[in-house]
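Q: Can I borrow your eye for a moment on a structure tokenisation matter? Would you mind producing a protein record, from residues through to fold? Write it directly below this note and I will take it from there.
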Amino acid sequence: MLLACGLSDHAVCRSANWTSRIRAIRIELRHFADYQSPLTRQRGKLLGMTLQELENSISKLPPEELAKFREWFWRFDAKNWDSQFEADVSAGKLDSLADAAIREHRAGESTGL
């Protein structure tokens, strides 16, 4: 799960302070740095940049560019999280949780919205 955000946590992640957002981006970039793709030539490098170099580049962005990067990254992360969630649902990984919630609701253990 990207940025360690759950479905109900996305609003919290969006409203977190700037330092928390950067920390979350760093966590995600560390995960990404371990990924091997056609864009990577060596493990831990993206387009010839190490994670530390990428972090340094991001930290030097002017405020306007950092805001654009933050918005892009939020959309990128949300899209990936949604894709993973949909894959988990399709694979039946959440069926037991849904079944338990339905049982609890039928037993009168839930409250109305």
About this structure: The helical segments are 10-15, 18-33, 51-59, 63-90, 95-106. Strands lie at 45-46, 49-50. The radius of gyration is 18 Å. The longest strand covers residues 45-46.
